Amino acid sequence: MFRLHGERDVLFADGTSGDGFSFRWTPAWGAPAFNGGAGAFHEIWEYTPRALGFHGYWEQDHEGGFEEAFAKLRGLVDRGVPVQVGLHYSLMLPYGAKTSPRLKFQHETMGKTGFGHHVVVAGYELDRGTVTIFEPNDLMPHSRYEAPIDVFRAAWEQASQRGPRGYEPWEHHHPFEGEWSLHDGYGPYLMVWVEPGRDPDWDIAQSIRHSFRRNLKILSGDFPKPYAMFGNQWQIPRFETGAPGMAAFAALIQTGKVKDTFGPDGAPVPLFVRGNIPNHGVLGRAGAAGYLRRVTRELAIRGLETAPTASAAEHMQASSELFKVLRYEQDLAKAGAVLARIAAHEMDALADMTRAWADVKRITERSRTASHLNAA
Fold this sequence. Notes:
This protein is an alpha+beta fold. Helix content is 45%, strand content 14%.
């Protein structure tokens, strides 16, 4: 969406959100998580467009219900503005599985698992009764699919998890104390979008000067609040965040203190396959690496030291590649070993970013000179 409106480096945009630097886990049911919660997404959505010089909007729970919300969505699409929506995504999987090998795998391995997800709506056909969905966690040739409007409506409404008896857990969501836990939950008809037109006074140096410190805090675990668990926070007795938390979590797996979980029906729930490692691991880390590469470039054309940020970018890219393995690893011992390697890379990235901070703080003091541009 940012690329469509003028930010050519989509990985820089992803890295600005801070998502690729985050990590959290809970010993209550052991599931590692990398992002979640209405508060987390809202915080990212408020921060990222502003950091990139755009205006972002967030709406949900329209008074006129589906008809009002769907009319608003269609009006945006008619203007050429794609709309990000929050859905009960399990209901959409059968349609995404028709075009995407990854979604087919998810559909087959997760079955009825209830989970929420954000996708982009970029088209609709009222005569055919379909909406056009773009899945952000997939390769472009497989990311586009169509779904019936009535299925989309149900998924869009159920993102709130509100039923006749109040908030109700989705079938086969994560277990907690003998019951299925709740998902993050939004108001129904959640939609967010970016308006065209970048602020002409936007300055990438100012953006980096603020976002780098923020991302450093997130990676170190000093900013845990926006990066919520997939579940209700009041059910969590203790959690750790950032690269140090990831290293601690990997160690607990390797010592046998964290194990695969079981659902209320007694069925085993593999820790690393059943939706507990979303593609925030793969794509989020790629975004973090892209962000750090852009920071490195901007430091270089201002004559500032680049080695630490370049090294941090390589470590986050290595983390992304390892997450491609972890995403599909069902064996807990093997998964723990992969996660330990990921944590080691991210601890090294944290050390690199800590060293780089002294130079990044000076980025707004330096001009982008012609000689530096030519050298870069």
